[in-house]
Every structure is written in C-alpha cells, then in structure tokens.
Amino acid sequence: MEKAISVSENPFYKTKKTGGNIKENAVVGLTQIAVLLIIAILFIILGIIIYQGREKFSWEFISSFPTDGMTKGGIFPALIGTFILVIVMSIAAVPFGTITAIYLTEYAKENSKFAAAVRFSIRTLAVVPSIIFGLFGLGFFIQFVGTGMDSAFNDGELHWGQPNILWASLTMALLTLPVIIVSVEESLKTIPRELREASLALGATKWQTIKKVVFPGSISGIMTGTILAVSRGAGEVAPILFTGAAYYLATLPESLSDQFMNLGYHVYIMSTQSSDVEKTMPIQFATTLVLLILTLSLNLVAVIIRSRIRRRAK
Amino acid sequence: MNSPLPSKQIFTKESLKKQFRLSEFLAEKVISFVAFLSIAIIFLIFIFVFKESMPLFSFGKKDKVKTEIQTTSDVKVESYEGAETSTEEIQPETYGAPTEDLNPVTQETQTSEELEPDTYGAPTEDLNPETATGKEVIIDEKATENKEGADRTWSTFFSTEWVPVSDNPRFGLLALLVGTLKVTIIAILIAGPLAILAAVYTSCFASNRRKEIIKPIIEMLAAFPSVVIGFFAMMVLATFFQDIFGYDSRLNAFIGGVAMALAAIPIIYTISEDALSAVPKTFTEASLALGASKAQTAFFVILPAATPGIFAAILLGIGRVFGETMIALMATGNAALLSANPFESVRTFAATIGSEMAETVFGETHYSVLFFIGSLLFIFSFILNAVAEFYVKGKLIKKFQGK
Q1: Is the Cβ of B300 closer than 8 Å to some Cβ of chain A?
Q2: Which end of chain B is more exposed for a tag (fewer CB within 10 A), N or C?
Q3: Which residues pair with B391 in a beta bridge?
Q4: Are B190 and B256 in contact (CB under 8 A)?
Q5: Which GO terms label this protein's molecular function in UniProt (chain B) (predicted)?
Q6: pLDDT, average across residues A95-118
Q7: Residue B12 within any structural domain of the chain
Q8: Backbone Cα Rg of chain B
Q9: Which residues 325-344 of chain B have a CB within 8 Å of chain A?
Q10: Nearest to B354 among A27, A31, A238 (CB)
Q11: Within the 123-162 window of chain B, which residues sit less than 8 Å (CB to CB) from chain A?
C-alpha cells in the first residue's frame, strides 16, 4: 500500500522553505502571539479572581446567610437559589430538547422545509440576546400566563402574576434549549446507522427502535447537554433580572411561587448597588470565584464526556 | 424446523404495505409537535415582546392593534389596572370613526390621566402646534390628542437625550444607539483580528497536538459567565486602563468594549476556525505545490476561501456584543452621553432595558419604550443570524462545490 505524502509532510519542502525566512516567521509569530494573548488573558482573569477571592472563600462562606445588610456573612441562599433554578430549568428543558433532537435526527427527512425551519429557529434562539428572554419572560410568563392563571384560579389575587422561581426557570430553559438540542443531536449522529437498520430488520418499529436502541445510545449526549445547559443557566443573569431574582431574602424559597437569590445576580448587585462597595470587595470576589468554579468545572466535565463521545464516533 | 409455507402467495402488495400502528403514529406526531414548538417560541418571543410596545404604535395600524388588545384583555382585565389603561391608550382608532362611542366617560378619564404628562407637560416642544387647541370634551378631540401622545414619543426618539423619568420624558434612542455602536465597534475591532489570527494559527500552523490543547482552552473562555467578565472589567480592567491612559470616567465605552471583546472572542474564534478547517485540503496542497510558503498559503489562499465563514463569525460576534447586557450594565458607566470620545461613559440598548425595567410601571410609555427597544434588538439579532445563515452558507457551497 502506497501512502500519498502530502506536500507539507515532505521533508524536502521543510528544509527548503522555512529555514530563516524572516517574513514568514514574523507572520506565523503574529498568529502565535494572538493565541498566547487570548490564553494569557483567560489565565489572568482566573488568577486574579482566585487570588482576590481565596481569602474569604471557605466552607463557612458557602454555608452561611449574608448578615449586616449583606456586608458580612456568606452566600448560602444565593447558592441554593441557583441550584433550584437550574434544577427546575433542566426538568423543563431536557425532555423538550431531547425530543426535538430526536425529531431532527430520526424523523426529519432530508430537504424537509419543516426541519430546516426548526433548525433555523434553534439557531436563532441561540443568538437572541439574553435580555430579550428576560423581556419575554416578563411579557409572556408573568403578564400573560401568570396573571391568566391568577384570574382563573385565584379570583384575580396576585400569586402567579409576579416574578418567581418558576417563571425564571422557564425563561432560562428557553435560553439553554439550543445547548441541549445541539449536544443530543451530535451524540445521536454518532450512533451507527447499522444499529438502527439491524433493529428495524428484526421487525422492531421505528418508535421501538428509538426507545430501545437510539435513546440509550444518546444518554451521554443528554448528560453533556444538561451539564452545559446547567453551566450556562447558572451563570446567566440578564434573563432573571425581572423574572424572579431578589436582592435579599432572609429565608430560603419554599415554593415555586417564591422569589429567590442567585449567585450571578448577587455578584451584580453587590458590585453595583451595595452600600459599601469597597468594604464588600472580598465578598464579591469570593462570590465570583464560587460562580466561576461552578460553571468552569461543569464545563470541564461536559468537555470530557463530549470528547469520549467523539472518540466513539471515530 | 421449517415451517411449511402456505401454498398460496402471501406477499401481496397489500401485506407488504406498512401497517398502521396507532402508537407509531402518535409518537411521530407528538415528536413533530415538540419540534414545532421551537419555531413557535421564536414567534411567541417576537409577538410578546412587540405586544408590550404596542401603545407606541397607537397612531396607525388600526386593525392589528384591535385584535391584539382583544386577545389579551380577556385575561388581564380583572387583575391589572395597568392593562386597562394601556388598552385605552390605544383608542385613537376612534379618531375618524365616530360610530365608536361606546364608553365615552371611562375612555375620556383614562386617556386624559394617562397622557397628561406627555401632551401638556411639553411647553418647549413646538412640533405639534395642534396641541394648543385646548381641551374640548369631545371624544374625537381626545383621540387626536392621544395620537399626539404617541407621535410625541416618536419625535423624541430622534432627540439626543434619554430622560425617561421626568415631567417631560424624552426617549432619545439616538444617544443609546450611538453608545451601543461605540461599544460594538471597539469590541469587534479588538476581538475580530485577535480571534481570526488565533483561528488561522490553530487551523493552518499548529500541530495536531497543540490544536487539541488550544481549542478547548479558548472555548473555555465562552464558559465564563458574562457577569464574571463584567465584574472583572469593572474591578480590575477599569483601574488598570485608567492608570495607563489617565482619562476621567473610570467606566467608559472603551472598558465596556474590551470586556465585550472577551465575550466575543470565543464565538468569532470557533466559527472562523470551523470555516478555515472546512477549506478543502486540495486548496492548500495546490498552493504549496506552486511554491507558496505556508504563511502565503494561509493568508492568500485559505483565508480568502473562508471569507464568507469569517464574515458570519464577525456577524455573530456583533450580535453577541450588541445584545450583551450584564457587561454593559457593569462596565460602561451607564450614562447616555452623545459623544464620539471612546473614553466617556455610554449606555447601550440592552443595559437600558436591564437597569430600567424594574423601575417602570406596567403599561406606561417608558415601559412600552423599553419593550420597543427589546423588539429592535430581537429583530436585529434575527436579521444578523439570517444573513449569517443563508447568504454565507450559499456562498460557501458555491465556492467549494463550484455549483
């Protein structure tokens, strides 16, 4: 078997061209500097936040309530609020996203206009600014659905028609939907066609094939998608600004119709609206550090799972 | 065991036909419906964001306004006073339609309450001399004034001041537009070249091993929540750059632009890298075979071939920066000043929505204006995405497949 040598791999090429060509090296060096600069900025951000935040960062900080008008104490309610938010969000977004991905890979026909429209909508959903989701949450969930529910069930008493966890989570679910769909679709595509064909040839119907063959194979994709969505949802603030996040709450939320505190929102208000920004600086950095650890570690897990899926595809 | 075949032919055309199974049918329908919902969401987002800004359009579009109101007022009437007033505000349809005098009394009181500050609190405004005609208690006259209210709001859109809360509110979108553009341009000028050069290095020069390290690290930048980048810019970058340049306002368009560049870099990088890698290997090899160097090949062959993809990357980067809220809120200083100086505070569209929505009252003009800005942002990002999707993709396919 003869393997074709590509030009760039040809040893003669290298000795002849690259040796000592200053202009060539300068151009390559320039691109290299761009890469190094980006990576350096990334580590500088990380380094400074870790350095400034480490002093206050402790178990006590994570597990205690803020005190003295949020100038002391911890971030426990904000952390819990973020957890509840991402859990409710996942419950709403994951089934929805998975089913849409299954439609796109299993049912959609090639050249189908409908499938193209679905794909386009998903990509649009991914680029719509997050603040628009906030407006939508306010206009649709709170003003339309919420007040509608109130006038139907509560005799117009204000209960659902105001910002709360449920509406914030659903708003966030819309925002993270494309993330889930893309991941699940990617993992569904790695399932060999032969498996599906074998299942169909054995007499299984399409739905049975999806249930027993395709779906189990996509579990890792669903996991990646969920983790990425959670990582995104934990960090986004704009959609919850007016759909449920609260400045300060003395108690943890008890039901879906309560407001909640949120890590990202906490960082925002502490750094812009706190009574004493200078004094609470260590708290701000530590909160940012917690948020960053949360999102980056989730992202890292997702990247690892995803690279495993890709390896399976090869 | 060989089961004996029936002597008669069983594989008729009928028996080979797919059997109808209810569960199959239902599964497909349900799944297709869920997929359809994602299209519906896009429409719902537009409808509901735009709906709240409807009162601003009360001078025209008669039929559309009416139907919108009818669908929503059923639900809201009892619980929201504000909803009532906002529907009344759209009454200018009555102007020129004298048959519609069903509730003259309520209409009159509500509209006059709602619009007083708009129409009468503007002594300096001499654009609409008709306002001076006085307050006659005729329905039609009321409607005219109402129309002026919407008109006045529109005329202030092109003024240079953004003063939403005052006796004489002015909604100078121009100031916000300039602010947004300033930040966007600064961010793209920084992020574009940096991200594209990095993408060229990764796809043309780097060895496979380096590629596998560099790509995930840069993509990790995308995982940084925007509030973290905003916080970093506000606390660290602002001080750092103020020490270097020595300008007055600590938070300004430049700081906002730098911070947004950090948010835009991973997007531009990832998409351009994909575009560069999609250029067929034959292009590279042909160029190298003709004696071009690696750098020449990268910049004169691969980069031009991938231009549509890189264009799309820049467009999506612009879309990200244009709508970015948290960074704008935290790092740009949030003062709606109209100037070309990059070192002065600015206020962007998205930041305006983010900071002022909580203070507005449901149904008032300010509230509608904020939703109107929201629909502008939505339309803008929708168009950007559509251009990136259709125009660019078409061009790429033409280029690589020679169709």
Answers
A1: no
A2: N
A3: none
A4: no
A5: phosphate transmembrane transporter activity
A6: 89
A7: no
A8: 29
A9: 325-326, 329-330
A10: A238
A11: none
